[in-house]
Amino acid sequence: MECSLAIKGIAGAKILQDLRSSFHKLTGMEFYFVDLKCKPVIVPQQSGHFCKAFFSSNKKDPVFRGLLDKACEQITASKKPCVFEYNKLLFAAIPIVMQEKIIGAVLMCPLRATEGSAASVAKEQVRNASELLSILIDYIFRNEFDFLVISDSDKQYSRNQESVINAIDYIKKNYHNKDISLQKVSSEVSLSHYYFSHIFKDEFKITFIEYLTKVRMEASAKLLKNRKLNVNQVAYAVGYQDPNYFSKVFKRYMKTSPIEYRERLFKKGVDKQIITA
Questions:
Q1: Which of 11, 52, 186, 246 has the most Cβ atoms closer than 10 angstroms to its Cβ?
Q2: Is the pTM higher than 0.70?
């Protein structure tokens, strides 16, 4: 899961929208979400108006970029807010920490510095506000993470599991079809064959074709118990159009040829007719 997606998912929570409004009324400052490359990761309509306008107009300014990059480096190392000044405006970068890792930052702005001693007071106000915001952001993200990020990830995993289960069911019902393929099965579960191939292997630790072969070989081993069926008929029954190729695959999978496998079964006493449905 990308960090920017995690930030987007949580930053859309109503509690953060309410916090943004209350925080601005209380401190006169706004905040904006960025990733650790200082790129915005929140949709514009959810951003502070000043922050959005300022960031858009200054993001190509090498001085501003340098200060912001340095602030992001500092919060990554310290996991604490960093206050910096640009063009007589005071900003704070606040780390977003999830599971002991920095996944992004909150850019807090602005409080205009005044002349003389007032500037130090303003800076102290920004520092205090950044520490307060850091506590609130940390609390909200830690609580909302379980509901909005982990649960979404679990839902995606569940959807993947459901797709794989449906695919397995389809394979077991249609393995005998000569036209069954990765593209056909992925289409049945409404996924691209590239993505389906990935989640299938991730779930079963084997590829789609390896699983299909496994199902076909297990089915052919059962059919070989039936003396009424010759090897060619068994091959056709499990989806192979070339009996010679079927025999090669069977031998590779079962470590013995179909004929040898059948003879060994009967030597063990499996010497009865099996009527297939």
A1: 11
A2: no
